[in-house]
């Protein structure tokens, strides 16, 4: 690389400072910092964490300045930084260390992780100036002292945070008083709950797995934990699965913390507003950051607590390389920062159970008496007493018990929630004569019906099959194989003709419903909250969840059931839950007793016996057969690593699974990254997708 003498200002190169830069070149064999000289004109602005432009392999590429050094081990000539894009130190040092650890854990590249961690720059928002007296606040709410943080070149252009109830752009935030003392009454219902809050306020790194009671105001409890941490002078990062949960947490934080102490990050805000709020966190204007998956990277001053709600939700899994999971990122962050962690939800995953069994975290649960007082009455339809009263309960989609429970709740003036696993009208149909699944004559995709008077349409290619004929028996009539939410709402409308029926799903998601008689048909994850709780919750088509070919089918079923059942009123107030399933099933038994801990321990024991995650560490390699074989040949796998497969994948690709002990996780990730580096160094043409701890194995 050549130097730029015009920018050196006649200072000898050996006396110029060196900048170590992560260049935005996603090639594994280039996954390391590169050294550049800093010209005297850029010396003040070229600080760790800023965006820069550099010449790399003859091209101008972006990157982040990771650190400054006096000398470089590089023996040749060094090029100069081409440009400091902005003096804004957007990459926090703590987040940079986290990004490197996550890249190593998932066999990825640092630049790919930083692309997830730092949002795209919005120059107008970044350059908007605030009043000169706009001073950053410490996590405890007091104005920052000069020695609290090093001066930043961008401090004079900082702007106030835009959280609920916070100041508007251009106006300085008022000095914040410390948050009011936290009311521990809500947490006192749980063993070790009040002690957890005390530990947060004292700045200790308490780590817990919290099983929320049914009907719990979980967002308020999380806000109280955040307030206790802020009173201790530290920051908080909260991650939830979707925008509806974020809205609840946002409102709870505003009520508990007061205005101006938090920001909520959501992709739906738009690039300008999202970047504005990110800057409020990056400039340490607010101590608490809440958001969906991307908020796991949010910078805060003196991080004291990380929280994840409902860690089993698949929305927490990042779909972009290197495919990290929010739970694992936050737990890694807690370990690196030495801060507290809270894994919370109505249910419990195998990973959370492993944290308890290894002693990394403590359990926060309520005693059985408190649980019985809060839980609804839960009954299955497939046990012997029910079959004796209703022999058709084993095959009926809406057995008499479910119908009577819904009618009684409606007569009592309460809404009824009906959870249906599938959206649409009839997402799957079959021949009415021989029961052969109806397939598209063009691409063999499954046919579906969007309405009672519509023609069958292929779910893969979108072609209509108006003249469909069964290839087995030539029958032309179709019957439902799977009933969706819209068809369920239509059937319930006929069964309860004087009752309002509403749907909540992908097309329209309801947030809340009033405390009045109504039937709410919702798909999992789209259940609205009812004022005063639902009088009854019906869990239909349970076989569709339990029979999925997925390692986590039972765990995901339990999560969806508990999340819906938690919306019902307590049994003492008339709340009932009816699950249309055999009462002898393990999942149903755990639901009836409301014992997610027992179920998670049982699931983890079975996976440990079979060698499945989280008891072991697995990686997935997907690509063309020749490319997969090339990567495996170059990989120096840990001793004892198992190679499973290949199995067919999409687009004529194949998939191989690698399995090792948990103690060999770092060695496996390193071996895969080095093998990928060998392929990119050789300019291999065929891509290979490497996933460590993939979300799905089958």
UniProtKB/TrEMBL annotation:
Spell out the Basic and acidic residues composition-biased ranges.
Answer: 145-155
Cofactor(s) demanded: Zn(2+)
**Comp. bias (Pro residues):** 170-181
The reply on keyword ATP-binding is yes
Pfam assignment, any one: PriA_3primeBD
Which taxonomic lineage does the organism of this UniProt entry have? Bacteria, Bacillati, Actinomycetota, Actinomycetes, Micromonosporales
Task: Please list the residues that bind Zn(2+) 2.
Answer: 440, 443, 458, 461
Q: Which gene encodes it?
A: priA
Subunit organization:
Component of the replication restart primosome.
| Residues in Primosomal protein N' 3' DNA-binding domain copies | 20-119
Q: What does this chain do?
A: Initiates the restart of stalled replication forks, which reloads the replicative helicase on sites other than the origin of replication. Recognizes and binds to abandoned replication forks and remodels them to uncover a helicase loading site. Promotes assembly of the primosome at these replication forks.
Protein name according to UniProt: Probable replication restart protein PriA
Keywords of this protein's UniProt record, alphabetized? ATP-binding, DNA replication, DNA-binding, Metal-binding, Nucleotide-binding, Primosome, Zinc
Question: What organism, scientifically named, is this protein from?
Answer: Paractinoplanes rishiriensis
Bound how, and how many: what does the cofactor note say?
Binds 2 zinc ions per subunit.
GO terms, biological process: DNA recombination; DNA replication initiation; DNA replication, synthesis of primer; double-strand break repair
Q: Got a GO cellular component term for this one?
A: primosome complex
**Molecular function in Gene Ontology:** 3'-5' DNA helicase activity; ATP binding; DNA binding; zinc ion binding
**Family recorded in the similarity comment:** Belongs to the helicase family. PriA subfamily.
Stretches for region Disordered: 123-183
Which residues bind Zn(2+) 1 per the record?
431, 434, 470, 473
